[in-house]
Amino acid sequence: MAFSDFVLKEAILPNMQATTAEDALRELVQAIVATGSLDASEVDATVERILEREATGSTALGGGAATPHDRNSSVSKVVTAIGISANGVPFNALDNRPVKLFFLTLTPHTLANEPYFQVMRYIAKSLRDQEFTRYMMQLSEISDVLELLEEQDGKN
Q1: How many CA atoms lie within 13 A of 114 on its CB side?
Q2: What is the reported pTM?
Q3: pLDDT truncated to tens, each residue of the chain (156 aa)?
Q4: Residue 99 forms beta bridges with which residues?
Q5: Are 154 and 1 in contact (CB under 8 A)?
Q6: Strand, helix or coil at 65?
Q7: Cβ distance 118 to 132 under 8 Å?
Q8: 48 SS3 class
Q9: How far is the C-alpha of 147 from the C-alpha of 142, rounded, in Å?
Q10: Cα 151 to Cα 73: distance, rounded to the nearest angstrom
Q11: How far apart are CA 11 and CA 28, in angstroms?
């Protein structure tokens, strides 16, 4: 497995503008829409489902990273948008720190659990690498994000 298997390079946002959790989710979901992987009519419902999921338990892992996700009937494969916020976004993190790094993943309803779990484990394993996470939060160019993802693939 590699990040290129599920990260949409056109949905990498190294300079997020959002200041709220809802705005951050909307910005990331709209980036997925812009790739053609999700219909624009699904944005509101997708953001609402993710917010409902976040209300039951935050996907902000601490250390400034979050992995919001949704099972979605409108995507045909697992897709992930990456967002980087220089100032961070309040996201109900376990450590109360703002989130600066988002990996938002949408998975088809029809996909078996195991491929979904593989992607989420791959992301989580990478985020446990403090050096990877620290560097990723500092990047402001898509090309640099892609390069770091490729380096991390070599470690995983």
Answers
A1: 1
A2: 0.95
A3: 999 999 999 999 999 999 999 999 999 999 999 999 999 999 999 999 999 999 999 999 889 999 999 998 889 999 999 999 999 999 999 899 999 999 999 999 887 678 888 999 999 999 999 999 999 999 999 999 999 999 999 887
A4: 89
A5: no
A6: strand
A7: no
A8: helix
A9: 9
A10: 32
A11: 7
